[in-house]
Write a structure and sequence with these properties.
This protein is of the alpha/beta class. It is 36% helix and 15% strand. The chain has a single domain, classed as Alpha-Beta Barrel (TIM Barrel), CATH 3.20.20.
Length: 342
């Protein structure tokens, strides 16, 4: 039977309609364009600063996100001659099996899946952060969502669970910002290299226009793709592993730009160890590996994580509801320490 496993369809505003409800300011859009160009210059070796992509594992609360952004803006200004800080604004969460899929999918944290509400909150948060003069980073999971928020994003990621997907490689080829491509959850970097080749190539695929019309999307290819090392069955941030990856990239006539994710398997899923990964990677940069263009850190106002309580009034402010994060005081300390070494 047709639609046998569909419960229902619910109409949603088009990207243009949602932009009209939650408009970005000229100031914010101008800053996003500026920050994208700065990231591109770093990737082109025209700017010797390093990128630090830092922030909550996922955003679930607007007030905490803006509180964090205000703190990060102050820090970013104090290190801006050596470090370009971009805030993690992750609204979609890929799950190994099931679980909370992110603010866009379920903004009320109760399996009601009010996705239009989630898209609106995401746009509000992004507008406020870009108005502050802070770049934003996100992982794109659903291939339609970029149409709703992409003009507010400075840097994007394709995650370890989707990097092998043709749909996401095609998506990356058409995004208007630099894109980091993670190695697979197994630790396999060859899939990320293949994704990098695909990301830089033209594609045609089905999508939607800004008015919500189904269409064929034709892309030019994204020349600012790069690899993110996030570990797998073990870590992969040490000197020998990064050098091996960069040699493989050069052999394929690809850029050797690498960002190291200090969390996930590289920290052995222990958020306390992010500082140790960062210290090692910064040492490699200081020793002369200019192909390491940046790092990623999972950080929130308070350290650790929490489960979503049945009574949402018991939700602690500034604490992650997905992966455990380092707290703000440690975030500030290790970034200032990184700045000193650079």
């Amino acid at each position: 039977m047709f639609d046998e496993n569909i419960r229902k369809y619910t109409s949603i505003s088009s990207p243009d309609e949602l932009r009209a409800k939650f408009p970005a300011s000229k100031k914010g859009l101008d800053f996003v364009n500026k920050s994208k160009q700065e990231i591109k210059k770093i990737l082109d070796s025209e700017d010797n600063r390093k990128i630090v992509i830092v922030g909550p594992c996922s955003i679930h609360d607007e007030d905490s996100a803006i509180d964090y952004a205000n703190r990060l803006k102050i820090l970013s200004e104090s290190v801006s001659d050596k470090i370009l800080i971009v805030m993690r604004c992750y609204f979609e969460k890929p799950r190994t099996s099931i679980g909370w899929k992110g603010l866009i999918s379920d903004p009320d944290l109760n399996n009601t899946f009010k996705m239009e509400k989630g898209l609106g909150i995401a746009r509000k948060i992004l507008c406020k952060i870009t108005d502050l003069g802070l770049g934003t980073a996100t992982e794109f999971l659903d291939p339609i969502i970029p149409q709703y928020v992409s003009e507010l994003i400075s840097w994007a990621a394709i995650g370890a669970r989707t990097v092998e997907s043709q749909t996401h490689r095609q998506l990356a080829s058409g995004l208007s910002m630099p894109v980091g491509l993670k190695n697979a959850t197994s630790g396999d970097v060859s899939v990320a290299i293949n994704a990098l080749i695909s990301c830089g190539s033209p594609h045609s695929f089905l999508g939607i226009t800004n008015s919500g019309q189904s269409c064929i999307v034709e892309t030019k290819g994204n020349k600012y793709g790069h690899i993110i090392l996030r570990g797998g069955k073990g870590t992969n941030y040490h000197k020998a592993e990064i050098n091996e990856l960069q040699e493989a990239l050069v052999k394929k006539n690809l850029n050797k730009n690498v960002i190291v994710d200090c969390s996930h398997a590289n920290s052995e899923k222990d958020y306390h160890k992010q500082k140790d990964v960062l210290k090692d990677v910064v040492s490699q940069i200081v020793e002369g590996n200019n192909g390491i263009v940046g790092v990623m850190l999972e950080s929130h106002i308070e350290e650790g994580s929490q489960s979503i309580p049945e009574d949402l009034s018991n939700l602690k402010k500034g604490v992650s509801i997905t992966d455990s994060c380092i707290g703000w005081s440690e975030t500030e300390r290790i970034i200032i320490e990184m700045y000193g070494k650079l």
